[in-house]
């Protein structure tokens, strides 16, 4: 039985899924500290993340339930399976999702709050449905986009990034700053 005031010791689950019928990508996230799984839609044109907290459409009791909901609508392919979403960026006609595929517990803070270090991560490229540019501008835009994607996806994460799901470790404790102002030395 878990003691009051301690962090849960469960695994988080993240899935990146693609619905072949709807031609849409979805992120299914079940944080360790939550009793619910979230189904987050990725807008196929803009890349905007959408989640409305609607039970049975966006919120489920488990990641398996969320995946089953998608599969009821047609064939679904799971493109990635991981422990955490570390980043998401939209660069022109491409969305990039960084998933921590493997982590290790590097330390435990009082209350059982686990500090996890990313040991293996992967960027997943999601092509968005945007109109083509005219041929004159297309080559220059593609070269700039490729440079931006390369700089983003080659940034070192494995072994250098850490996080805690149950405690804000972006500030010293105790902190004189309000909760919405992180300490930038730790971010």
Distance between the termini: 34 Å
Strand content: 35-45%
Molecular shape: globular
| Helix fraction bin | 10-25%
Tally the beta strands.
Answer: 10
Uncertain segments? 1-9
Number of helices: 2
Whole-number radius of gyration?
19 Å
Major beta sheet summary: 6 strands, antiparallel
What's the pLDDT, averaged over the residues? Answer: 86
User: Helix and strand succession?
Assistant: EEEEEHEEEEHE
| Alpha-beta content class | mainly beta
Key terms:
187 residues; mainly beta; six-stranded antiparallel beta sheet; four-stranded antiparallel beta sheet; 2 helices; globular; disordered N terminus
Put the structure in a nutshell.
With 187 residues, the protein is mainly β. It is built from two helices and ten strands.
In words, what does this structure look like?
This protein has two helices and ten strands; from the N terminus they run βββββαββββαβ. By secondary structure, it is mainly beta. Strands 1, 2, 3, 4, 5 and 6 form a six-stranded antiparallel β-sheet that branches. The protein starts with 12 loop residues before the first strand and ends in a 24-residue tail after the last strand. The relative contact order is 0.16.
